[in-house]
Amino acid sequence: MKTELRREIAALDELFAWVDQFAASAGLREKDVFDAKLAAEELFTNMVKHNPRGRDRITVSLDRDGDRLVLRVRDDDVDRFDGSLVTPVDLKHHLGNHEIGGLGLHLVRSVMDRLSFEHEAGVLSVTAVKELEGEDV
Fold first, then answer.
1. Model pLDDT for residues 80-134, shown as the tens digit of each residue
2. Whole-model pTM?
3. Is there a domain that residue 33 lies in?
4. Based on the structure, what is the number of domains in the chain?
5. Does residue 137 fall inside a structural domain?
6. What would the pLDDT profile of 36-53 be if each residue is shown by its tens digit?
7. Residue 59's domain is classified under what CATH number?
8. Alpha carbon distance 90, 27 (integer Å)
9. What range defines the domain where residue 35 resides?
10. Following CA atoms 57, 123, 113, 100 in sequence, which dihedral angle do they give, to the nearest 10 degrees?
11. Which of 48, 34, 18 is nearest to 110 (CA)?
12. Sheet of 57-65, strand order
């Protein structure tokens, strides 16, 4: 399932409603819905904040492939960025110094099992995969 959202933070409500719609059709557990929303919010927000000159729409897709949830966020006409090169956050140091920012990718990595970045011809695609466990509720 795919959607295109306006490049603005105000589109988050639309993003959350869309994730809920997908989750209902895919039979996701509440915890998995929470994790999908958190990851989608962080990745979408990063693209809005850090790629202000990108196209006016950001594409988000969610798919359930058996026991895997696959989230993809795509942004066109943006500078190269490879989140795999971002240094992992040391929470004790980060929070102890009251630093602002830098926790988004850490949060995504904490709720998803894999996170990958591709940049080709001005298009940034971020893919986050979660292994689903247990019975659907």
1. 766 665 556 555 554 555 455 567 788 899 999 999 999 999 999 999 999 998 6
2. 0.85
3. yes
4. 1
5. no
6. 999 999 999 999 998 888
7. 3.30.565.10
8. 35
9. 2-131
10. -70
11. 34
12. 2-6, 57-65, 68-76, 123-131, 114-120
